[in-house]
């Protein structure tokens, strides 16, 4: 309920890292129609130092308990914790806003489950430009979608795909293509690094037909994504360079995209599809 005088949507944040903390601060600064009701964290002491309101005006809960009395659950957790939090929100019929979008591809049964319970899953644009254009093109026929992601090596180091192949990026001197395949394969191998590719695939032609290249580039300081789309209604390409947050795997714009998506739930005017 968004209009003045109506009960604000109660937001629960699962995770208070670089993204979650910024979202929390923006909600506390005041967004009409939204209130930060509860937060789930692993380190309570650290969380209280960052947000003194915890335990007073903001409830501290376990991640799976957020859905008990929050209308919206924003998931910003390590990938291994995704399913339990998502299930708790979906089974309660809540609105789930996942930031670990790559995990959604691995747990696609949750979409059908949401259909059965009346829950909704809303994926923010995150660090990606042009999702509206891709979604519009998908109403017609998209022939191909390709995404090329380039990140500083420390934004990719330690990814599952690299560990399994014994690939280290430490001391890298020149650009190295570390992955070339489908968005689904990329999401499985880089679960904390390519949520943008997962979101792109869901907006367009799916994770198996969306092509993805991932490069580690020591000359870069910004996370760079280039998208090329060929459709019957338009051909377009887009490039975005994102400033990393405190977590080098995630751009600063992700938190602001999440805030914009939350605002869109309650605003009287919503621009974009």
Summarize the structure.
The protein is α/β, with parallel strands linked by helices. It has helices spanning 18-29, 44-50, 82-91, 101-106, 109-117, 131-138, 160-164, 183-189, 195-203, 253-266, and strands at 9-14, 34-40, 59-60, 72-75, 95-98, 120-121, 142-151, 176-182, 211-216, 223-231, 235-242.
What features would you describe in this structure?
This protein is an alpha/beta fold and 273 residues long. It folds into two domains: 9-126 and 253-266, Rossmann fold (3-Layer(aba) Sandwich), CATH 3.40.50; 131-242, Dihydrodipicolinate Reductase, domain 2 (2-Layer Sandwich), CATH 3.30.360.10. 32% of the residues lie in helices and 24% in strands. The chain contains ten helices and eleven strands. It has helices at 18-29, 44-50, 82-91, 101-106, 109-117, 131-138, 160-164, 183-189, 195-203, 253-266; strands at residues 9-14, 34-40, 59-60, 72-75, 95-98, 120-121, 142-151, 176-182, 211-216, 223-231, 235-242. A six-stranded parallel sheet has the order 3-2-1-4-5-6, with helices on both faces. A five-stranded mixed sheet has the order 8-9-7-10-11. Strand 2, helix 2 and strand 3 form a beta-alpha-beta unit. Helix 1 packs across helix 10 (253-266) and helix 3 packs parallel to helix 5 (109-117). The radius of gyration is 19 Å and the shape is globular. The two termini are 20 Å apart. The model has no long low-confidence stretch (mean pLDDT 92).
């Amino acid at each position: 309920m968004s209009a003045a005088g109506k009960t604000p949507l109660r937001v629960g944040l699962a995770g208070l890292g670089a993204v979650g903390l910024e979202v929390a601060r923006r909600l506390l600064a005041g967004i009409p129609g939204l209130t930060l009701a509860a937060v789930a964290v692993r380190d309570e002491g650290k969380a209280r130092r960052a947000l003194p309101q915890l335990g007073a005006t903001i409830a501290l809960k376990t991640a799976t308990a957020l859905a008990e009395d929050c209308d919206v659950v924003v998931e910003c957790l390590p990938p291994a914790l995704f399913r339990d939090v998502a299930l708790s929100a979906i089974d309660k019929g809540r609105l789930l806003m996942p930031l670990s979008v790559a995990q959604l591809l691995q747990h696609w049964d949750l979409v059908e489950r949401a259909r059965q319970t009346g829950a909704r899953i809303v994926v923010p644009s995150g660090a990606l430009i042009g999702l509206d254009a891709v979604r519009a093109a998908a109403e017609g026929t998209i022939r191909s979608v390709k995404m090329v992601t380039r990140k500083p090596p420390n934004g990719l180091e330690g990814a599952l795909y690299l560990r399994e192949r014994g690939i280290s990026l430490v001391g890298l001197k020149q650009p190295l293509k570390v992955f070339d395949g489908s968005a689904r394969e990329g999401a499985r191998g880089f679960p904390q690094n390519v949520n943008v590719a997962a979101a792109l695939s869901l907006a367009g032609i799916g994770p198996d037909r969306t092509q993805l290249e991932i490069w580690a580039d020591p000359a870069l300081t910004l996370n760079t994504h280039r998208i090329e789309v060929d459709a019957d209604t338009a051909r377009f390409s887009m490039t975005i360079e994102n400033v990393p947050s405190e977590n080098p795997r995630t751009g600063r714009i992700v938190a602001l995209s999440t805030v914009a998506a939350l605002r869109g739930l309650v605003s009287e005017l919503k621009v974009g599809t």
